[in-house]
Amino acid sequence: MTYSIRIEGIDRVQKLLGQDFGSVIRTATFGIAAEIENAVAPYPPATSANSPSTGRWYERSYGPRWTRKRGGGGGRRTSQMMNRQWYKEYRGNGAVLGNRATYSGYLHSAKRQVRWAGPRGWVTDRQGIERAIRSGAVTRIMLQAIMAKLRRR
Fold first, then answer.
1. 2 assigned to some structural domain
2. Total tally of structural domains belonging to the chain
3. Mind listing the pLDDT tens digit for each residue in 46-90?
4. Radius of gyration of the chain (CA)
5. Rounded to whole angstroms, how far apart are CA atoms 43 and 45?
């Protein structure tokens, strides 16, 4: 799934200043992707589903766990550790933010998020983008990158 943020007016700025801002835009989009990651990546607080009190639970960064009737416990180490699977990379004139965990779309995709994930606090990709835009981070990062280039000339 890909989302894009349109930077309007950059053509006029390039023409007025007689400079190409392609590399600046590319660098700025990487910073914007980092800002979106900061909004989306944090795990929400654990719920009762993560509690041993039920006898069966899911332990983050491990997998399913259970208590045994004869004492002790069992489990399966199956977690893909989604919090360690985030990546950002340059692609074309922009940047891509993604997660390699196979189930991340069911928690973070606005189109595929499972019903229970939103109410438990999982932030979607769309929500992360909206937060970055509303906070002013997108404009701030882009302006900082443009100003840094202008100072170097």
1. no
2. 1
3. 877 677 777 787 787 888 888 877 777 888 888 889 999 999 998
4. 21
5. 6
Query: Rounded to whole angstroms, how far apart are CA atoms 42 and 19?
Result: 38
For residue 109, give the DSSP letter.
-
Spatial CA neighbour of 128 closest among 92, 88, 91, 90: 88
Looking at the domain assignment, is residue 1 inside a domain?
A: no
pLDDT value of residue 147: 87
Q: Which residues pair with 91 in a beta bridge?
A: 94
Tokens of 15: 């023409």
The token pair that represents 91 in the structure block: 């692609």
Among 36, 81, 45, smallest CA distance to 60 is for: 81
Determine which helix (DSSP H) or strand (DSSP E) holds 28, and give its type and residue range. Answer: helix 22-40
Domain limits for position 43: 10-152
Residue 87 lies inside a defined structural domain of this protein: yes
Q: Which amino acid is at 23?
A: S
Decide if 4 is inside a domain.
no
